[in-house]
Amino acid sequence: MASPPSSSSGIEAFDVIIIGAGISGINCAYRLLTELPHLKFAILEARDTIGGTWDLYRYPGVRSDSDMYTLGFAWQPWSSNHPVATGDQIMEYLTEAVSKHHLNQFIRFNHRVVSANWSSTGRSWKLSVAHGDQQTKNIDCRWIVLGTGYYDYESPLQPVIPGLDSFKGMLIWFDRSSKVSEQSNLVYSGATAVSLLPILPDRAAQVTMIQRSPTYIAASPNTSWALSFLPKSLVNLCRRIRYIISPYLLVLLCHYLPDVVRDGFRKEIMAQLPKNVDFDTHFKPRYNPWDQRICLDPDAAFYKALHLPNVEIVTGEIEKVTENAIQMKSGETIAADIIVTATGFRMAMGGKIDLKVDGLPISWGKRFIWNGAMLDSVPNMMFMLGYTNHSWTLGADDTAIVLTRLLKHMEKNGKTSAVPRVSSEAATGTQRMWQLSASYVLAADDNLPVYGMAGNWKPRNRPPIDFVHARWGDYTSDLIFSA
């Protein structure tokens, strides 16, 4: 690959710009530093610290919803015997990883990328970057890597609840600034509520969790075997392999034998519920396991909370919200001082950056995905995409590995650009990018890219196999290279 584009106007130029200093961006920076140390790259982060999602969400009880042995980096093993970590522990881990591997030097905080335009003439991206309160500046680079996740950080998914505007109490959507006082609280179901509910009873007089329909919530001990007689490096390797393979096998079991998994959930959950909580009403989902995400409940903290005298669960449709209560369609009225709308989030690809190719806008909706990492007809751009049914970092690391392999290939062969072009065989049909039936996914489906039916356009949804493919499989088919 050629050296960074130069500019007589004093515009700074890079080989690679990574956008976002969350888990994806940090991991990609490490891969570039260790595999291609001669390249000039930087991470542009809109906020004033690292962490991405884990910096944004600071609500009580925030924690990982997957194990840290795979959510953590392969090059910075999670050494604790507790697979699930709190938000603070994750931030400490990320800070240590960045410091230990000297990645700080590549991060530029308060740099928000407003727009990016690919120039076919110059074979480079032209970025417009807002730096704090200063005037917008321009940056040139050969490649951009979007480590921006899939959340809309500016506007949450607003629940459609009649009368919500008339509520006179406190209405909370949890982010880093949210606080809970010692008043009664209403919590809506989902992964956020499952992590939040065990924390609130100590802070509030009454906590009622309202859900429209039941969710799969899997309780498991938050401990992992130590194997202290083995070298630490071998323990770390064994843990990572186990936690890559085991969840994948569970997903396969859910797919091929859903009734078996349903029966297993019923048996485990009924043993943990208080006698006054009916399983069929509150914990028998309408869908099969992994049609929507299975929520993780470390040490059964969620189910233990249901035994407390000031915790209640209500399942059903909301009729309306009044000034100080929620009225259910069943006729039940629930008094409320605070309503916590943990109802999911709005999806937004690419950090809402204005992306263009030769001045023409790039649409994410229904565009084909190459190798889980690039968009059809968009040159020199990769985006980090994790798994819906496994740790995010595994997918992001696969993309980073493909990127380094591709950059080495282009450098060796004197190429400056790579453009994916979907094959006619792959384009015979489409497959959803986010294969979940959750409401926030369905609401965004038309704006999401899609997978094809063959080759590198097929879905990346098999973590162990994808791991092998990213490192040793095909990484050039259906790419058009230019010198």
From TrEMBL:
The protein in question is named Uncharacterized protein
Organism whose genome encodes this protein = Xylaria curta
Which lineage? Eukaryota, Fungi, Dikarya, Ascomycota, Pezizomycotina
